[in-house]
Design goal:
Blueprint: E1 3-4, E2 8-10, H1 25-39, E3 45-50, H2 56-64, E4 73-77, H3 82-88, E5 90-92, E6 114-118, H4 125-132, E7 144-146, H5 150-171, H6 178-181, H7 205-216, E8 223-228, H8 240-252, E9 258-265, H9 269-279, E10 286-292, H10 298-307, E11 310-313, H11 324-331, E12 336-339, H12 344-347, E13 354-357, E14 359-361, H13 371-378, H14 383-391, E15 394-396, H15 398-410, H16 412-430, H17 432-456, H18 471-474, H19 495-501, H20 504-513, H21 518-527, H22 533-538, H23 543-556
Parallel strand pairs: 1-3, 2-3, 2-5, 3-4, 5-6, 6-7, 8-9, 8-11, 9-10, 11-12, 12-13
Antiparallel strand pairs: 14-15
Length: 560
């Protein structure tokens, strides 16, 4: 009998589909994390994937087929149920809002299984609000919100602390201790990228570079810098610091081509025109655009990385939490020259596999909320504008940027040693084996906490209430009375009742109300025998489901 991988993976198509026009980092990360879990399966171990949708089995099977080891298995289900998750032990969801999954534990012990999520962008109102509400949800120390970087974890911790302090002040109480609160764990586990880059994998680094440059018609002697990612000055990084630094390098060395390859996706013509307008101001720098309004393909991306001497990203945006493109550059054996910005400083050891360029941000001088916070909260400043406005207050150190490029321009040996260090750092910390092992250790740790809680049982772990009362508690006063008083009655099926159950007006609601029991209900109606609450329960319905179905039958049964 197969053993379970220690968590079931919730994988909706939006969390891994990279075939659409808008390739987002979280989708790439979702696909690669799923593949890392499947690739790390032990013999006779089974990974459970919950993926809703008509073609989910086919899509997930195709995603994981090439990496699942012989003797291991992948099971695809369309929904997560308490029984399924209790069997596996944990659920992983690709966002930090794990509180929305707590209803799955309503009818089981709170320690029946763990809920785990992961942060991506943490500056949106939805993400911050969901994180801040964690103390109000029935979540426990055997649950976890995985943070992909130290900077991201600090945001989560600050949001939680602010909510706790606000609640304490509202109640006129002191803030409860962490031992009393017993909140979910906030482990740091990075995103993952395969250490095996796919461009001409049989060739050594120098030969891959020559091959890629020939294909792109770039001189073998040029100094090539690659930027890979969204070309978005308001939601990724403003290019002014990069253009200015490389223009300076080009002016200092007129005898050698300085080439900047920008590879990625430009979302619309207006943004494309803005980039074109800015590039004109830097006439000594050779620009190459790969992709643009038509997104660059995966093959083009790896070709660009193969052609480059250096990878760069002057991120200055609050949306950037980790830096998946940096891992891809490390897999391509490139030194990294990037801004000293949030998760980037986890990936780059300054002076070892690249350089961190200092940044200054006016937000560091803001005490509390400012007028931009207020405008965003009121809705007079939308999300895109907010993150763009915030990025305008970030300054990347020009002199340090030029010095970093110049150091690698003049010292090929240092360039090679940093490139080698990038690949080794990737293998050690961010490869599929390293990241999947970190998750496995996390879930085994949470399993131990669940076991300890189960031993103590209710004497120490009283189930917490949900963040909001159920609708039955909120709206039980709307009607004259409840239906349970009529629960001992039986409904006699009629042709008219059968017709109502199949009507266009009712069918789509009944399919959702019946929790998969509509065919059972129709079968009982077609049999023509009286239908009671007891009989519905005997067919596998819970009492609540049976009561709902009995009410439906009463609603559509003609009087008399």
């Amino acid at each position: 009998m197969a053993s379970h991988f220690p968590a079931a993976l919730f994988l909706p198509k939006d969390a891994y589909d990279v075939s659409s026009q808008q390739v987002l980092g979280r989708r790439v990360a979702g696909a690669q994390l799923a593949q890392s879990f499947a690739g790390a399966l032990l013999k006779e171990e089974m990974l459970t994937v919950v993926s809703p949708g008509d073609k989910a089995v086919e899509s997930v099977s195709q995603l994981l087929a090439g990496v699942t080891p012989p003797g291991a298995m992948v099971r695809v289900c369309d929904q997560a149920t308490p029984d399924l998750l209790s069997e596996v032990g944990a659920l992983y969801v690709p966002d930090p809002i794990i509180s929305r999954w707590t209803p799955l534990r309503n009818d089981v012990a709170p320690w029946a299984f763990s809920l785990t999520g992961v942060i991506h962008t943490v500056c949106s109102e939805g993400a911050l609000g969901g994180i801040a509400n964690i103390p109000l949800a029935p979540l426990y120390p055997w649950d976890a919100v995985v943070c992909t970087s130290r900077a991201g974890r600090d945001v989560v911790a600050k949001a939680l602390e602010h909510r706790l302090e606000t609640m304490a002040r509202r109640l006129g109480a002191s803030r409860p201790s962490d031992d009393v609160l017993q909140l979910p764990e906030l482990p740091i586990i990075p995103l993952v990228v395969s250490a095996d880059q796919p461009y001409q994998p049989g060739l050594p680094r120098d030969q891959r570079r020559r091959h890629a440059r020939a294909a792109l018609q770039i001189s073998p002697d040029a100094f090539v810098v690659a930027f890979v990612g969204r070309l978005s000055f308001h939601s990724k990084c403003h290019p002014i610091s990069l253009y200015r630094a490389l223009e300076q390098l080009a002016l200092d060395h007129p005898d050698r081509d300085i080439v900047l390859i920008e590879c990625g996706h430009i979302f619309n013509q207006w943004i494309a025109a803005a980039y074109d307008e800015l590039r004109v101001r830097f006439p000594h720098l050779c620009f190459r655009l790969v992709g643009g309004l038509e997104p660059a393909t995966d093959e083009q991306k790896w070709q660009v990385l193969a052609a480059a001497d250096v990878f760069t990203s002057p991120a200055d945006n609050l949306q950037e939490t980790f830096g998946l493109s940096l891992l891809e550059a490390m897999a391509a054996e490139l030194p990294l020259v990037v801004s000293d910005w949030n998760g980037y400083r986890d990936l780059v050891a300054d002076g070892e596999n690249g350089f961190l360029i200092p940044t200054q941000d006016v937000l560091c001088d803001v005490d509390g909320a400012d007028d931009i916070d207020a405008q965003f909260s009121l809705g007079t400043l939308d999300y895109d504008a907010m993150i763009g406005v915030r990025s305008m207050g970030v300054v990347v150190d020009h002199s340090a940027y030029v010095r970093a490029f110049s150091a690698l321009f003049h010292d090929q040996n240092r360039c090679r040693s940093m490139a080698h260090a990038s690949l080794e750092r990737l293998k050690d910390r961010y490869s599929a084996s390293a990241v999947s092992a970190a998750y496995r250790h996390l879930w085994l740790r949470l399993e131990q906490r669940r076991a300890e809680a189960a031993l103590k049982q209710a004497s120490a772990w009283q189930p917490l209430p949900s963040g909001l009362p159920g609708y039955g508690s909120l709206f039980d006063h709307y009607a004259t009375s409840g239906f349970s008083a009529f629960a001992d009655q039986s409904i006699q099926p009629t042709e008219e009742l059968a017709a109502h159950l199949s009507s266009t007006m009712n069918q789509w609601l009944l399919e959702r109300l019946s929790a998969g029991q509509l065919s059972t209900l129709r079968r009982l109606v077609d049999a023509g025998e009286p239908i009671s609450l007891e009989r519905l329960c005997s067919q596998g319905c819970s009492r609540n489901q049976a009561l709902r179905l009995l009410a439906v039958l009463a609603k559509f049964t003609p009087p008399g």
